[in-house]
Specification:
The protein is mainly β and about 850 residues long. Helix content is about 0%, strand content about 50%. It is built from 1 helix and 69 strands.
Length: about 850
């Protein structure tokens, strides 16, 4: 297939002259011809793959013949009358003195012993167009020529010469020829090894998720912020001198994919505590030190969300999925304090706060919101969250003041002020003294001289007086923040008395904002130089412009990659965590978490926040949160979703771009999510997951296939014929049957008979949870991906372990690569792409 390649910004990178040898071609074929591929099944690859694209200089002849060597100068010219990519193409014409002219690309450094394939767009005016590969050693001496492929096709077509590089090969060149006295056009020349690690696609420059403030060893005001890490770069604790606006040091936390921290706090003795995720570890940093101390491993808390200092130098911590609050006491270690899961039935400890005046530990709970007020001595707890607020998902952030607790609710973004009374029997009561709408994360600050601050509607800084219970606007605008603090600064002229401090994440660094309470002055300093990291890839998809799009996890982001041309990669800012993508017309649709937000992006148009990509619809009002699947069918977009936290009822949504409407069909498969979709002949097929929003335990034990008639809007479901809680990777095979994976079972469904007609267990070594299922022993919605290749074979990735091929006849899997893999898509050349090691993109050429 011929593609319109992205041509802008291509520059000449130097010329390596190659002495091309012309030889006579005896061509008898009149159609596209290729040498037969090896019939021997490929050996399984594992471990590191060759890294980086093989970039052909001046691959589309926009710089005329720069980077190309002609065997006969008179035979080669550049034309604009025909082209595939850009505005120019090569014209190669045989003549009396040049019976079989060729042009050879500049040498490209490559990997020995690897199979290579070039993709050359050609058009034969007369005679034949040919292409082959030539390999050279480190001295640039010719080693071997690969087999020729050739065509007499009068329309643009793709020649795919293939050859394996000799063991001593160092360079490869693509040779294009005109044979049989022919005249041809050629354009858009690309080349790839059979396997290529394209590398990371998305990067973040020091994304800050958690921040707090304290003092350094000599008492200077200091910000402590944690930046996210990736597969190859660990998260870091960054120590920043607030008044000088200087990054003092960066200290590595545990590495992972991804790694970072949701929680950091200042202990009562000045020690900084950090709870990192992937895996959960509690760290301690003593101001002025050049290293951190690993305090404890959080075995049951994979993602710690909450930290709060006690009064004796220790901390309380908790998170997901065990829903337990632990207490670390310096010198004594870690002990269990309370189980929020036991008390509320919920898996999330999302926030913590301590009121030392009443010895109360507050615990913010989700996925159905609760606030536990617990006696620090007896661990006796009372749920004090008013009934009216318990419909929210999370008590997201807590802040305590004497006799009060401030609760930042999610997803409502409402700040509730509770007056708390501790009774003589160590139980608690609470009344709501105030609520404030449209409050920004992270909710309220700690009390500063009797006042609590928060960022309210319109980005204004609000001051809530504890004694009077009054709320006023302190500043009309205030930056986003990831953490609050306060300090008496050295510069008492500019910042008299105590000042409010805030830290907010920005591209390339962190903003430290100082607000003078006395004068109302606000000053923001941008600190750069924070260590960035690669972003894990959440989803990959081929867009309408034939580029491969990758969406990022946690920090979000979207990147466009031109196949085999990594120099043409582009990033699109302002996109959240993309759970799925689909192509409809000239638009790329993005399914973004949270709130099941669907956006449309038009490639080739300038990216603009709120406009490109633009919001299409949002299914949060229908209780949906994660749009895991999308597919185009007959001009409409079909979207499969998982419900919000603590809920099970997923949905199928139909978006009509003509009317602009989104029609939500909820709970078509009872108490299950819809996480994989395929479309064929007016029917949308959907694979389900018995798990729903995090924190909810499944009520069903077996996944089902959804069959949705797009003409009538009616739906039926067919339980899978095996004991499996997930059904994923739906793809339409070449014969019209629907192939899919139910955990490690391959299933085939016949639309004609309306039944499953085949099942086999592909990889018996894989382990999956068995019924009865729990909320945390879940199968990922990204466990399996299948796609039907241009060769008619079915390819798949499974369980983060296998990239494999299935023959349509015997269904036996051929493992092509074993490693940390996920996702799957194809390019217009028939190549396959999957994610590698979390943050990388890999290509396979069949």
């Amino acid at each position: 297939m011929v593609t319109e390649g992205v041509k802008k910004g291509v520059k000449s990178v130097g010329l390596v002259a190659i002495v091309a040898v012309a030889w006579t071609l005896f061509v008898t074929m009149t159609t596209t011809t290729a040498f037969a591929a090896d019939a021997v099944a490929p050996a399984t690859r594992s471990g590191a793959l060759p890294r980086g694209d093989l970039l052909i200089q001046n691959y589309s002849f926009e710089d005329d013949l720069v980077g190309w060597t002609s065997s006969c100068d008179a035979a080669a010219s550049i034309t604009t009358e025909q082209h595939v990519a850009g505005a120019k193409a090569l014209r190669l014409t045989s003549s009396g003195s040049c019976v079989a002219p060729t042009v050879s690309s500049a040498l490209v450094t490559t990997t020995h012993s690897e199979k290579h394939t070039a993709f050359v767009q050609v058009r034969a005016v007369s005679g034949s167009a040919t292409a082959n590969l030539v390999f050279y050693n480190s001295a640039k001496q010719l080693l071997s020529r690969g087999p020729l492929v050739q065509t007499r096709a009068a329309g643009w077509t793709t020649l795919k010469p293939t050859a394996t590089a000799p063991a001593t090969a160092r360079y490869v060149s693509v040779v294009i020829g005109a044979a049989s006295g022919g005249s041809i056009y050629a354009d858009d020349v690309r080349i790839s090894r059979q396997f290529t690690n394209v590398g990371p696609r998305l990067f973040q420059d020091g994304y800050v998720r958690a921040a707090t403030f304290g003092a350094d060893r000599v008492g200077r005001s200091t910000a402590y912020v944690v930046t996210d890490g990736g597969r190859s770069t660990p998260a870091h604790l960054n120590v920043i001198d607030v008044e000088r606006g200087q990054l003092v040091r960066s200290l590595a936390l545990n590495s992972g994919a991804p790694s970072g921290s949701w929680a950091i706090t200042l202990g009562s003795t000045g020690t900084v505590y950090i709870a990192s995720f992937q895996p959960g570890i509690l760290w301690a940093y003593h101001p002025g030190a050049t290293s951190m101390i690993k305090v404890a491993a959080m075995r049951g808390t994979q993602v710690p969300f909450a930290l709060a200092a006690d009064t004796s130098g220790g901390v309380y911590f908790g998170g997901y999925p065990d829903g337990i609050v632990y207490h670390y006491v310096s010198g004594k270690g870690v002990k269990k304090f309370v189980s929020a899961k036991t008390l509320t039935g919920q898996n999330y400890v999302r926030s913590l706060a301590v009121d030392p005046t009443t010895s109360t530990v507050y615990v913010g709970v989700g996925a159905r919101a609760a606030v536990l007020a617990c006696d620090a001595a007896t661990a006796k707890c009372t749920n004090i969250l008013p009934t009216a607020l318990r419909a929210q998902q999370f008590a997201y952030q807590l802040s305590a003041a004497p006799g009060k607790v401030f609760v930042y609710m999610s997803p409502g973004n409402e700040l509730a002020v509770l007056d708390v009374t501790k009774r003589s029997d160590s139980t608690y009561g609470a009344t709501v003294s105030a609520t404030f709408p449209k409050v920004s994360y992270p909710g309220a600050s700690a009390a500063v001289d009797g006042t609590v601050y928060y960022r309210g509607a319109g980005g204004a800084l609000h001051a809530y007086q504890l004694a009077a219970g009054t709320d006023t606007v302190a500043a009309a605008t205030f930056p986003d923040t990831r953490g609050w603090g306060s300090a008496i600064l050295v510069d008492q002229v500019k910042f008299p008395g105590r000042s409010l401090l805030a830290a907010g994440t920005v591209p390339g660094g962190v903003d430290i904002t100082t607000y003078s309470i006395a004068s109302g002055t606000t000053v923001t300093q941008r600190i750069t130089g924070l260590i960035g990291a690669t972003v894990n890839l959440e989803y990959i998809h081929r867009g309408p412009d034939q580029n491969i799009y990758t969406g990022g996890y946690l920090t979000g982001g979207l990147a466009a990659y031109a196949p085999m041309r990594s120099d043409l990669t582009a990033s699109i800012a302002g996109v959240g965590q993309t759970e799925s993508m689909a192509t409809l017309g000239d638009k790329l649709y993005l399914g973004v978490y949270p709130k099941s937000l669907i956006q449309s992006y038009t490639p080739g148009q300038p990216a603009a926040t709120g406009k490109n990509p633009a919001k299409v619809c949002e299914m949060a009002p229908q209780g949906q949160d994660r749009p895991y699947a999308m597919v185009e069918g007959a001009g409409k977009l079909y979207i499969g979703t998982m419900a919000g936290y603590g809920n099970l009822k997923g949905a199928l949504t139909v978006y009509d771009p003509v009317t602009g409407t989104c029609e939500v069909h909820k709970d078509l498969i009872r108490d299950q999510s819809i996480v994989s979709l395929a479309y064929s002949n007016g029917i949308v097929y959907g694979g389900s997951l018995v798990w729903g929003g995090l924190g909810a335990s499944p009520k069903q034990s077996r996944a089902s296939l959804l069959v949705f008639n797009t003409a009538t809007g009616t739906a039926t479901s067919v339980p899978v014929p095996v004991a499996a809680g997930s059904l994923e990777g739906l793809t339409v095979a070449s014969n019209g049957n629907i192939w899919m994976m139910a955990q490690n079972w391959l299933l085939i469904y016949s639309p004609e008979s309306g039944k499953f007609v085949f099942k086999t267990q592909l990889f018996k070594d894989l382990r999956y949870p068995t019924a009865p299922f729990g909320a945390t022993s879940r199968t990922s919605a990204y466990d399996a991906f299948l796609t039907t290749g241009a060769d008619g074979k079915v390819y798949g990735t499974l369980h983060g372990r296998y990239f494999f091929r299935l023959d349509a006849h015997d269904k036996a899997p051929v493992v092509l690569y074993r490693g940390a893999v996920s996702g799957l898509t194809t390019d217009s050349f028939g190549n396959l792409y999957f994610t590698l090691n979390g943050d990388g993109l890999a290509r396979y050429v069949p």
